[in-house]
Amino acid sequence: MLDIEECERARVRRDRRFDGLFFSGVRTTRIYCRPVCPVRPAKAANVMFYPSAAAAELAGFRPCLRCRPEAAPFSPAWKGTRTTVERALRLIADSALDHGSVETLADRLGIGSRHLSRLFQMHLGASPVQVAQTTRVQRAKRLLDETDLTMSEIAVRAGFGSLRRFNTVFAEVYRRPPTQIRRARKPSAT
Q: What is d(CA 29, CA 43) in angstroms, rounded to the nearest whole number?
């Protein structure tokens, strides 16, 4: 819920602390702005406040060309290329690279595979394939700890193409085979 008086004070003062937290629409111009907009503030009687740019647009306002509301903090444009990486991470978590390629993932994101790899290196210090492999190993470890599934079932559910690949990658990461980790989890019956 927006406090109208607080929003008005922030708008008139161009308070950066409120940037991205609300948008002001001016009835006379039908334009909406960020609280930090450099134009001369409109009369308070002509201003309405909205919690999001989408709400202002739904009310019939268009974005200001000076303060560019689409670039407000926490918007996709403000986050820049990190938004693309976050979308890719969500797709990888949903198994996008378990049965597809980096090229297919990049196509889904609307960019080239080389550019996607550069963005991953820049933001995460790892390639999309390395991130997917880590995600699969973590998924497998959780299944090892929380279920009594067979190793073959864990390999498939975690997204590995084969039991052999699962065992190899798991041993590389944990420096021991998955069976040893499972045995350590279960108390001995003797």
A: 12
Nearest alpha-carbon partner for 54 in 36, 76, 74, 69: 69
Helix (H, G, I), strand (E, B) or coil at 175: coil
**Count of alpha carbons within 13 Å of 57, Cβ hemisphere only?**
8
Residues paired with residue 33 on neighbouring β-strands, in sequence order: 24
Helix and strand numbers (H, E) in the chain are 10, 4
Per residue in 154-180, pLDDT (tens digit) is 999 999 989 999 999 999 888 899 998
Tens digits of residue pLDDT in 125-159: 899 999 999 899 999 999 998 999 999 999 999 99
Query: What own/partner pairs with CB < 8 Å and gap ≥ 24 does 3-12 have?
Result: 4/49, 7/35, 7/49, 8/44, 8/47, 8/49, 10/35, 11/35, 11/41, 11/47, 12/41, 12/44
Residue 136: count of CB within 10 angstroms of its CB: 25
Cβ pair 155, 144 in contact under 8 A: no
3-state percent breakdown (helix, strand, coil) of the chain, nearest 5: 55, 10, 35
Q: In whole angstroms, what is the distance from residue 182 CA to residue 180 CA?
A: 5
156's tokens: 């498939």
Q: Which two tokens stand for residue 106?
A: 């990049």
pLDDT at 75: 65
